[in-house]
Amino acid sequence: xxxxxxxRSLTLRLAVALAAGALxxxxxxRTNDDADGAPPVGDPSAGDAPGDxxxxxxxxxxAPFIRVATAQTxxxxxxxxxxxxxxxxxATGNTIYIxxxxxxxxxxxxxxGNEPTDLTLSADRRHLFVAVLGEGKLKVLDAETGAxxxxxxxxxxxxxxxxxxxxxxxxxxxxxxSALHLVNLETGVDTEVALTQFHEPDLEAAxxxxxxxxxxxxxxxxxxxxxxxxxxxxxxxxxxxxxxFTLPSPQRRIFLSASANRIYFADRxxxxxxxxxxxxxxxxxxxxxxxxxxxxxxxxxxxxxxTFVSFANRPHPGSGVLFSADGRWLYEFAPVxxxxxxxxxxxxxxxxxxxxxxVPPGALAQHNFSQILxxxxxxxxxxxxxxxxQIVVIDRNTLMPLRAEIVGSSPTDMAILPGGDEMAVxxxxxxxxxxxxxxxxxxxxxxxxxxxxxxxxxxGSLLDRLAYAEQDQYSDVTxxxxxxxxxxxxxxxxxxQPDVEFDPTGRYLYTGExxxxxxxxxxxxxxxxxxxxxxxxxxxxxxxxxxVIYHGGVVHFAGHKLDATTLADxxxxxxxxLLLTPDGRFAVSRRRIFDAATFAEVxxxxxxxxLVAADPDNPLLYQFDNETGALFVRTLPNP
Length: 639
Prior knowledge:
The chain is an all-beta fold and about 650 residues long. It has three helices and 56 strands.
């Protein structure tokens, strides 16, 4: 969509941001995220800083902080860059503060009544709309002078508000369940425009009021909705946490980064044009973003908006926070002394390069791996760090990390594809599977496949098919085309917390349940690109680990060895098996090595850890311990 309202509404602000400085050249930035519309980041270090001898820019003064009278809170804070004004609500002091960022002075202190809880500029920026919860009113201030021009008594007390087109505002109440209301602030007409009762909702709107976002809070299964507001309110998109991963109970706050075309909700980033596309997970609620969307602020931290990695602590943590529209400054309110601090973004970035994905690997002890995997063609081991969004390449001979790269948000599983030159990575924090080029010595990340869910386990087949499973309880299993990403078929709520594994031909897919009292192993024929049931185990198994392994006509599941065709139980090891050596001779659990043919224990491992890999060329096992950061090498028993 080339002329989206989110982009049109920020034309002026983007022009100001781009004029503020040179562009940071991120030569290692991921390229697949271009579809999100995020422009190159403006260099916050360009131009003058407060106190420089050169003449300052149009919207900042000389002081490192601004004293805001006796304010006790300042949340939210909004900016009108055309006037160089900030507006902040102090619900405790029942006031609105209007702050001039050129003179570093509080221009007006406006008493608006008991408990102002939210504010927003009108679509034409001529007025400031204020929700005054304690009086049950929406009040209208002149954006230049702060003079009260109108107030409207609402049907129910307004708590969260968002601009509508023209002289209108949407609001919801503070109650557990609230309808959505539209108020004409000229006539005072208050209309309930959505009959649905939403659970503790928050609101955000595009700059021109043409789009409205509503997100529920503090409820498993919360919804995120997008509405078109003209000519009438129409729901055009919805996302609901109804499966695929542990259901969150999000905070009552959403944030729209219009230029990046993202909406932040439940600690996650969504594509604002398509709410089903989740771009990443931060594990923290976004409160503000730089104008280009490349820097995100939560209550305590600053994140890279492209890699979702935290790179700095906020100097003055708290909920009152705003990036200036020119991309140079971070404004943060601190109640002690009623100070609004101004910090140059360049001083926060330090050595961090925004959007860069090829990063120093660091020592192994700096990583917390969720999986390790030995490359069958190259003398390396891959470690998947879900917390730092990285894959780390480790030399198998020296046991030293060679390089690291950010490959997606919260990567949870990796599978080397048939042929051995590419890898699929399930990026649980996004609705995509990353494809890596293992032969590329410069940049391993190749592309991403958008999928309708959050992949948690992934596997590839000889027939150019990928299968992935989501995380939470009864989870979908989806079959997709490797080249196009097209969904071929899916199993909906059929298997409980499954792992997935293809047979070598790619015709049969095995799905093994886990973490339940009656787990099963199921077999599907997918030769026709549809899931056709082809058997399941006669017995059930109690709380097995999430692991299925195929080797030589045998499937290992729940600590048992099963015939791959009939699923007949061939015997038990007494504990879950995590690895078969390439020659099939040994089965490995967290602590023990077994003879795969006789089930007899033939050796032990240094620590209790499920992070194990087998050398394809030598009789060696590798085991990583996240507690100590040690990578152990164990020689397999002699024949």
